[in-house]
Write a structure and sequence with these properties.
This protein has 108 residues and is an all-alpha fold. It has one domain. The protein has three helices and no strands. α1 runs antiparallel to α2 and α2 packs antiparallel against α3.
Length: 108
């Protein structure tokens, strides 16, 4: 049955995300510290990802004519843009070359 497969898959995904939560928090916080940024941005990243997942699951049940649809889409777009900004920041921007308030450059 399709609904059973979806339930099993969803359970697997939830367990997998819980297992990866602490390593991901650690890596992202270290990367933000490499960029001389606060670890607070890690929380922003996870809140946006949670909102994106939450809104995605309910978006198909909201009529396009509904005012809720516009609100969902607006929040979705904002979270997506923040997510992309953080992705580029973490993945492609070189860390600070000098020692910063979080410690020495690990590549120096």
């Amino acid at each position: 049955d399709y609904t059973q497969l979806v339930a099993i898959y969803s359970t697997f995904v939830i367990i997998w995300r819980i297992i990866l939560l602490l390593p991901a928090l650690s890596l992202q916080t270290r990367r933000f510290h490499d960029l001389n940024k606060s670890g607070f941005y890690t929380i922003l990243f996870f809140v946006c990802n949670f909102l994106l997942g939450y809104l995605s699951s309910f978006l198909e049940h909201v009529s396009e004519e509904s005012s809720k649809f516009a609100i969902f889409v607006a929040i979705f777009i904002v979270c997506f843009l923040i997510d992309m900004w953080l992705f580029v920041l973490l993945g492609f921007i070189k860390g600070s070359a000098q020692e910063n308030k979080y410690g020495p450059n690990p590549l120096a």
